């Protein structure tokens, strides 16, 4: 294992070194939070693919393949479809707004009064996303070093918090590019072909497994529909995803770079399902499907390759964890704290903006690590996060982009009614039930439409500013507070 350990240690040291390098570039708020809005197609595609394909997509995707066969790819497929839809239909307009958070977009569209409530919902989502990613370190470090769960979470979390705090989005972008390359080599080019060969090829896999393992819809239509609601729609509105869209240097980069990343997700989805299916042939009686990834890596890969593939799993977890962490800190500082204390935003070049956002990443990082240590059920935590995000924020965000008649009162009603409905239904049906997101989303839509139609249309002055910003004609307003209009 000495060679494997060396590979992992070098990888982790490289992450910290890039954090230090990124600190030298992050001199303004724009550079710290959105990498100066100047990523080109290659870096944009790589970092976008890295953030959406985390531990759940890698370890969880292989686990679903182990349990259901090729149809286990559907979870990651719906993530890819969401990223494709975002890139093709919305990313160019989002990038032109020149904002930092989803709540700032809602304020701009509706007139400056939707931010704090939507910010709280988005903060809860990004926090739980960061927590679930951080918990995944325990699985990987246990395979590597037989390490205590708490120590593993603190070690992995501390490295991510360190490089994220040092250089913000620049550090995260650089580390994500390395993680994207490591993930591609480790999972697609090494683990996938080795797993299939070890299982005897596809003919042997078909001979040894039930036919349901090769049914594209074997996982069930209702499950696929739920994945679409949670993950496809979640990709359209998550702060962690939008913050990456804000890093694109042009509309074209956001659209075509995101399309490449979404297509990559579809390939990655199929790879994970095939690896899981091959593992089922080799180890048919594992206690948990989530052990499939660690089992095949530990038992079937040669020395050195095993270290690289485990580094790939670590890369997948770290990319999602760091992206969720900076999103969580950005929302906490810009959408909640700054509004509650009535602070006036300074210009992008102000040093205290960088200092303040850096402090919030550090604080949120400590909160994330502490919560991850205390929490056991990853699936439930992630389900709560996505149910709140989709049930509370999908309708007012997409409504603002697509429906002129939507009002701030309708948006607030939608967030509150949808969020409370999701929470109540989770308490009644159970956290993992499908009904909370179904009925929560429906109630959010009804509240948005009904209240918007019952209230005065949005002030034309607000809509004029909104249209100008959508067209990219007023970028200088990006750092200015949005006025409230009666």
TrEMBL record:
It is a multi-pass membrane protein. Pfam families: SSF. Gene3D superfamilies: Sodium/glucose cotransporter. Its main location: membrane. PROSITE patterns: NA_SOLUT_SYMP_2, NA_SOLUT_SYMP_3. It is found in: Membrane. Keywords: Cell membrane, Membrane, Transmembrane, Transmembrane helix, Transport. The keyword Transmembrane applies. The keyword Flavoprotein does not apply. The chain crosses the membrane at residues 6-23, 44-66, 72-95, 116-140, 152-173, 180-197, 217-238, 259-283, 303-332, 359-378, 384-403, 410-431, 437-455. Belongs to the sodium:solute symporter (SSF) (TC 2.A.21) family. PANTHER family: SODIUM-SOLUTE SYMPORTER-RELATED, SODIUM/PROLINE SYMPORTER-RELATED. This is Sodium:solute symporter. It comes from Streptomyces carpinensis.
